[in-house]
From TrEMBL:
InterPro entries: DNA_helicase_Holl-junc_RuvA_I (IPR013849), Hlx-hairpin-Hlx_DNA-bd_motif (IPR003583), NA-bd_OB-fold (IPR012340), RuvA (IPR000085), RuvA_2-like (IPR010994), RuvA_C (IPR011114), RuvA_C_sf (IPR036267). Belongs to the RuvA family. Residues 72-91, 107-126 form the Helix-hairpin-helix DNA-binding motif class domain. This is Holliday junction branch migration complex subunit RuvA. Residues 153-204 are annotated as: Domain III. Keywords: ATP-binding, Cytoplasm, DNA damage, DNA recombination, DNA repair, DNA-binding, Helicase, Hydrolase, Nucleotide-binding.
């Protein structure tokens, strides 16, 4: 694991830079914001993450370790690879991503090229509170709980967006709501339970 690279900036391109260190030139892919802070010929240090594939080794660079850690964490979500993770950090700061996930802000997440409604719901569901609190100390307010009726509508919409047929989604949500009091039912909890209920069922 190459955790960081320090050296002279040999080149700054549109999506990557070259840092010379120890007689080697490291091509490092980075966000436009990170690249904008670099100047040819200057000294720089980037926190880095090395992504190894069967046919390639790609180095990604970040202004600080926090960005790198978020980059690595969001890749644990199904369908999120390093390029999409980098795009997320190009659009949002780590704290903005934390708020978007915690408040289930689909609109904010779909601002990222390559993330649609289905992908945004999956990111919210799979990340949960794993990104942690905002680093600047500002509160991250979780999405408010809704009544059973509203929860049912929202969860059915989320499940159909994830690929299940409407009848399958409605059946799963109704089964979940029947097992617990619908009064004050939390949308996120109902969604997770419905996904577990659907299990390995085929999608429409």
């Amino acid at each position: 694991m190459i955790a960081s690279v320090s050296g002279r900036v040999a080149h700054v391109g549109l999506d990557a830079c070259v840092l010379e260190a120890g007689g080697l030139g490291y091509r490092v892919h980075a966000t436009p914001g990170t690249l904008a802070g670099l100047r040819d010929g200057s000294e720089a240090t980037l926190a880095t993450s090395l992504v190894v594939r069967e046919d390639s080794m790609t180095l990604f660079g970040f202004a600080d370790a926090e960005e790198r850690d978020v980059f690595e964490l969001v890749q644990t979500v199904s369908g999120v690879g390093p390029r999409l993770a980098l795009a997320m950090l190009a659009v949002h700061s780590p704290d903005d991503l934390r708020r978007a996930v915690a408040t289930e802000d689909l609109k904010a997440l779909t601002l990222v090229p390559g993330i649609g409604q289905k992908g945004a719901r999956r990111i919210i569901l799979e990340l949960g509170d794993r990104l942690g609190p905002a680093a600047d100390g500002s509160p991250v307010v979780p999405a408010p709980s809704t009544g059973g009726g509203a929860a049912r509508t929202d969860v059915v919409a989320a499940l159909t967006g994830l690929g299940w047929a409407a009848k399958q989604a409605e059946s799963a949500v109704d089964a979940v709501l029947a097992e617990e009091s619908s009064a004050g039912a939390d949308t996120g909890a109902v969604l997770r339970a419905a996904l577990q209920h659907l299990g390995g069922g085929s999608r429409g």
